[in-house]
Amino acid sequence: MIVEVEGLRKTYGSAVVLDGVDLKVAEGSVFGLLGPNGAGKTTTIRILSTLSRATSGEVRVGGFDVRREPAKVRGVISLTGQYAAVDDEQTGRENLVMVARLMRLARPAARRRADELLERFDLVDAADRRVKTYSGGMRRRLDLAMSLVAGPRVIFLDEPTSGLDPVSRTTMWDAIADLVRTGTTIFLTTQYLEEADRLADRIVLLSKGKVVADGTTDALKSQVGGDRLDLHFDDRSAVERAAACVGGHVFAERLVLGIASDGSAAHLHHVLDSLRQNDIAVLRVSSHRPTLDDVFIALTAGVAA
Amino acid sequence: MTLTLIGRSVRLTRRNPDTLLMSILLPLMMMALYVYVFGGAINTGTAYINYVVPGTIVLCTGYGATSTSMAVADDMRKGMIDRLRSLPIRGFAVLTGHVAASVTRNALATAIVVVAAVAMGFRPSASVADWVLAMGLLLLYVLALSWLGAAAGVVAKSVESASVLSFFMLFLPYLSSAFVPTHTMPAFLRGVSEHQPITPVIETVRGLLTGTPIGSTGWVALVWASGLLLASFTLATWLYRRRTSD
């Protein structure tokens, strides 16, 4: 296991950000940490990449303890944060050569490494332009290229595609998929189920600093069920009585009750029958594909079909 | 490694000619203003241009410190600091890089001010040894102010708030013997101006370059400059540790 986390806790004063997180990541795999804003994803990545200290718990990366041997951990990892850490006033090539020199490559070797990475990330034409003229997607690719200069064993990617347009997002996904083929371990965080689904072998769902699910993408999907039933009502008390009767998550302002479902007719019958027996009138029923919200509704509310 | 980061900071300065130009042009214009407009009315007991050169050089150092704090604040805010800290290098070296770039900028500014001053009639009487001593003291002072700038940049919430430092850096020289002799000021201002670090530094440099009496001022300046350097370096180190340990 190249990343091992046991009982990780992080508190700021009385605020508990991480509350006993356990993670294991196999070398060469792609690991996705999925969760909404504020779940503790970035804090986890900051602790794993030695930028922040755990309040308690054991964290080992590449076999080294992040607290006792941070320098050794830094030697095997690289971090690509949420905001591209690139110098706007330097060219793409200068940014890459700078990182290579910081990693103690001799000048000619640093230049060669920069050339290779520019080629690989399709930045050759823009290599000698200042980064401030780059598009959002190009900045992210340069940022990722800078992370790869020293050939790290583990790459931490914090929300690598947030804020990108769909085309740049796909390009970024391809770049990440290429990395996987070279055998590098990837630890990424994301808010998008689709992204985790597409890239990750294993996913851990984080909610309010706790792991709420851990498994392969397929296993998680079957756990969610698949679809969500939205039951529409005409007043607030009906929604609440329905929730008391069949469970689910109340969207009070829209007078909707969301229920995780396996999409079968039997489940729909069961729900509607229960409501009729309790004299609760349903206006309308709709069903849709699961979103990350639904995964959380299903996993945190404990409502199953 | 530190050299790479110094190279980076110098390059970033070069790519931002507005700041560089301002930090040299403005003191030069102030010098010209004082020499040709106010200087005639100020009695310093010598040609005014000879009086005003050290003050102009010190004014430049204030700009240098301000740009240092802005550059540091930019790195801290934009996530560059996280990238550098996750590399197997000392993240603190990024501050050293900015401070070294500030010293380079100031060396350039000082050279330009001196050349311009000579063109305007500045006639220093200094020997080579005097020049070396004067530049040594200025170097110490520039280092002290640049580390203070770096410390301010570490704690600043934004690049804009980092530039608040410039207010003090650019205002304080006027409350010193930079442009007018302190004995012409009202008593309470004289107290301030004679006991702040800029006055002894200016008096010492002036003495070394133009032969005005120095007396014990040289030692006072040396103690101020090294004390400030020690304090601001310690402060920057401490603030950096605190900011980066959460």
Strand proportion of chain A, as a percent range, falls in 25-35%
Largest β sheet strand count, sense and barrel closure of chain B? none
Please mark out the parts of chain B with pLDDT under 50 across 5 or more consecutive residues, or reply none.
none
- Summed up, the domain count of chain A is 2
Shape of chain A: elongated
Radius of gyration of chain A: 23 Å
What are the low-pLDDT stretches of chain A, counting only 5+ consecutive residues below 50?
none
Terminal CA distance of chain A:
35 Å
Largest inter-chain interface? A-B, 32 and 23 residues
Can you count the beta strands of chain A? 14
Sheet having the most strands of chain A: 6 strands, mixed
In terms of quaternary structure, what is this? Answer: heterodimer
Separate helix tally of chain B: 11
In CATH, the architecture of the largest domain in chain A is: 3-Layer(aba) Sandwich
Q: How many structural domains of chain B?
A: 1
- The end-to-end distance of chain B, rounded to whole angstroms, is 25 Å
Account of the protein in words:
Chain A: One of its GO terms (cellular component) is plasma membrane. Chain A: Residues 3-233 form the ABC transporter domain. The complex is a heterodimer of chains A (305) and B (246). Chain A has 305 residues and is an alpha/beta fold. Chain A folds into 2 domains: 3-222, P-loop containing nucleotide triphosphate hydrolases (Rossmann fold, 3-Layer(aba) Sandwich); 225-301, Alpha-Beta Plaits (2-Layer Sandwich). Chain A is built from 11 helices and 14 strands. In chain A, the strands form 3 sheets. A 6-stranded mixed sheet of chain A has the order 6-7-8-3-9-10, sandwiched between helices. A 4-stranded antiparallel sheet of chain A has the order 2-1-4-5, with helices on one face. In chain A, helix 3 packs across helix 4 and helix 5 runs parallel beside helix 6. The longest helix of chain A is centred in the middle third of the chain and has 16 residues, at 166-181. Chain B has 246 residues and is mainly α. Chain B has one domain. The mean pLDDT of chain B is 87. Classes of the chains: A alpha/beta (305), B mainly alpha (246). At the A-B interface, helix 2, strand 6 and helix 3 of A face helix 1 and helix 4 of B.
